[in-house]
Amino acid sequence: MEKITKTSTGQLTESRRKFIEKAGSGAVLALFGAAFFTSCSTTDDPDPNQPNNPGNDNGISVAGNTIRIDLGIQSGLNSDGSWLLIPEAQTLVANVGGGFIALTSVCTHSACDRNWTYSSEEFTCTCHNSKFDTNGNVLRGPATQPLTQFSTSVSGDTLSITK
Length: 163
Ligand code: FES
What we know:
Strand content: 25-35%
CATH topology of the largest domain: Rieske Iron-sulfur Protein
Shape: globular
Helix content: 10-25%
Largest sheet: 7 strands, antiparallel
Distance between the termini: 43 Å
Radius of gyration: 22 Å
CATH superfamily of the largest domain: Rieske [2Fe-2S] iron-sulphur domain
Bound molecules: FE2/S2 (inorganic) cluster
Strand order of the largest sheet: 3-4-13-12-7-6-5
Order of helices and strands: EEHEEEEEEEEEEE
CATH architecture of the largest domain: 3-layer Sandwich
Number of helices: 1
């Protein structure tokens, strides 16, 4: 917690400052509970499912316009209906009936690129709830333009996406 030693109207005495710090900490704990702080610390941890985290071999590499996914490591993607958001590459990937599709994750409405859900072969940008099918076509606005689709190919255990 940031220590407050000055206000806009002047300096606090040391005892007053300590009282406010203690009262403030107690109030925050009472409002949010210890889980608030626990959950904050876990979001700072590297996400092992995201590429380019040092020391993590998550099976995803991004080089220029090419994304490679090791399906042996990202084995969850082998199931119909599974999907991934790769933020560093601004890419959505889904397994649709055993094949793979890839779309830009940059929503055509207002360019949100990280707030996606996927269900029943529909992507939803939760920024304003636009929906897209697996070809990127708009199913529901406010977006009016489709998502760009990327090409995919599989060789052995490697899924390649070319933007
Ligand atoms: S940015 Fe996606 S719906 Fe608005």
